[in-house]
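Per reviewer request, we include the raw input and output of the structure prediction for the construct analysed in the revised manuscript.
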Amino acid sequence: GREITDAHHERNTIRPTVMALDERVNGRVRPALFVLAAAVLAVMLIVSANLASLQYARMVSRRRERAVRLALGAARGRLVRQALTESLVLAGAGALLGVALALGGTQLVSRLTAFDIPLLARVGVNITALGVALLVAVVTGVLAGVLPALHAPADVNDALKDGHRGSTRGGAHARVRSALVVAEIAAACVLLVSSGLLMRSFVHVLDVKLGYDPTRTATMRVDPPRRFRDLMEANGYYDDVVRRVRAIPGVNAASLGDLLPFGGDRSWGVAGEGQVYARDEYPEAFIRVVGTGWFGTMGIPMKEGRDFSDGDAPDSPRVVIVNETLARTLWPGRDAVGQAIQRQSGLLRVVGVVGDVRHDALEGKLTGELYFPMRQYSDGGAVNLVVRTKLPQSQLAQQVRSALAQVAPFVARNEWRPLQQLVDKVLSPRRFLVMLLGGFTAFALLLAALGIYALVSYGVSRRANEIGIRMALGATARDVSALVMRGTLALAASGTVIGIAAAAAVVPSLRGMLFGVGWADPATFAGAFLMLFAVALAAGWLPARRASRMDPVDALRES
């Protein structure tokens, strides 16, 4: 860009920005894709921990069986292969189900039109994705089967004794499974904090003031059929279009503009009369060419001065309207109405100041805006008709097309769009990220709950003898339930503390995606803490209830 500018000194107001095509297409969504990839990795770790915990429980329950097989002459390698085979079969079955869901899910996502995501329609499951799924399934199966494979009994006699409930070795196995569940809770906590921060940011973005009112407003392109000879001919076409549309019953207001909010931008470096800036320091202003009644139709408030009128003709003095940000930038502490903006073609007199409008991004800073009257500057290019009405969109479209059939018959091919749709398109990448990350987080919480439930249930069955003795000695059902729930909450506390520490290390990388909330937001961290404890309570309630209803006589007989 600098080379182009230096080569054309006579066009020193032009400051091109050169950007790689890949960055232009994918740059704004690349951080979101990285976040989603990290979420997928976290969910995979939770799945692997669940699978490893399941295999470990099977190893413990079948330890005596494996010891008997060894005593009868089975080779140790055969037991190792059996453990790995079982793990790989489980992982493979899950991978097949996952691929089937992915095929259906990608077909559904590719048909979504409400999200402004680059190349979303081309999303699909290809050979590379299938290869990655196969690789992940194999690696997960092998890793989850390593623990049982490595814990083949070294001493047959010791292994046969170890099958008794309450043995020291059994306690070691319980600690390993507890560690896996704690890791699941910690990973779920990181996802919960991340999705919570992004969700709060999304809510803050929704609260951003647009500067205009998109409700009950629709738009359609009404580009001229040809280039006009002069502004008088162009104004005749525009006046005819607006007059016909305003005459439709139910239409409250109508006007024309070359660019809609979030529909494209162009900017100039501008300066007030007598103001001098360095070559690259001119204040920038987005340029808009609008028709009479534009601000009232869009719901943009007029702060000072007047709106454009039919008197702003091609042979009248050149006038402009600025927004509040540009007025403060060029004339701080002064009244902008009556001031002049200098251009090479002459001075442009400011006749009004309007409120700021979000034209670029909801999260960005407000920028200067410079509005030109269409009656003085139109070149017959792109023109958008904006209508404020109480009519349904289908009825409005039909009546507008009928009204413009003689002056602009080609508009029948154009589509009406609610102005709110432009806002929704801008919000769609953030909404898409929040939805997917929220789904991953919900799935992670479900897996963590299942892991807690399985571990607590297994612990209750292993401690049936102990529980029976406690109840025989006078422990009440409430005492037994509290005993089980204390263990459950201890797991939740350990996992949550580790997860919050991990989240504090990870979520600062989300700074660029947060809006209106800091990465260390106390409410989000506290909400994640409470949510995980609620999940742990729900997961441990059934095992605790079952333990509290245990018959001490039956429990002692099982020992």
